[in-house]
Specification:
The protein is of the alpha+beta class. It has a single domain, classed as 2-Layer Sandwich (Alpha-Beta Plaits), CATH 3.30.70. It is 25% helix and 33% strand. The protein has 3 helices and 6 strands, in the order αβαβαββββ. It has a 4-stranded antiparallel sheet with strand order 1-2-6-3. Strands 4-5 form a two-stranded antiparallel ribbon. The longest helix is centred in the middle third of the chain and has 12 residues. The N and C termini lie far apart (47 Å).
Length: 106
């Protein structure tokens, strides 16, 4: 049985690279991961696949991507005075680069 790899384009949705990568996640853990493992974290579009993320990062930052890991993150409960709500669910990608490439956020 053949496994078919689907991108957002094969599902009928065409996203530009700047629509796939929403923002870089600059945290202490992310900075440690970038210096030690050359891996960077991004918030990405909910319907983007690993293939879409790889293409977008290579195109936007002119780097060579080795691996992409994605996570679906649940929103957190929040409260403001008398109202309760939830933050939105979002998707995270951790992109590992080739050792000779780097991304500078600062």
């Amino acid at each position: 049985m053949a496994v078919e790899m689907q991108t957002a384009a094969t599902r009928g949705l065409t996203l530009e690279p700047h629509q796939i990568i929403l923002r870089p996640l600059v945290t202490e853990k992310g900075m440690h991961r970038s210096t030690r493992y050359n891996a960077y974290a991004f918030e990405i579009h909910r319907q983007a696949t690993k293939i879409d993320v790889r293409r977008a990062v290579e195109e936007l930052f002119n780097v060579k991507v080795v691996a992409v890991h994605t996570q679906n993150r649940k929103g957190k409960p929040r409260r403001t005075r008398f109202s309760r709500g939830m933050t939105k669910d979002w998707k995270k990608a951790i992109v590992t680069l080739d050792p000779e490439h780097r991304i500078d956020f600062f």
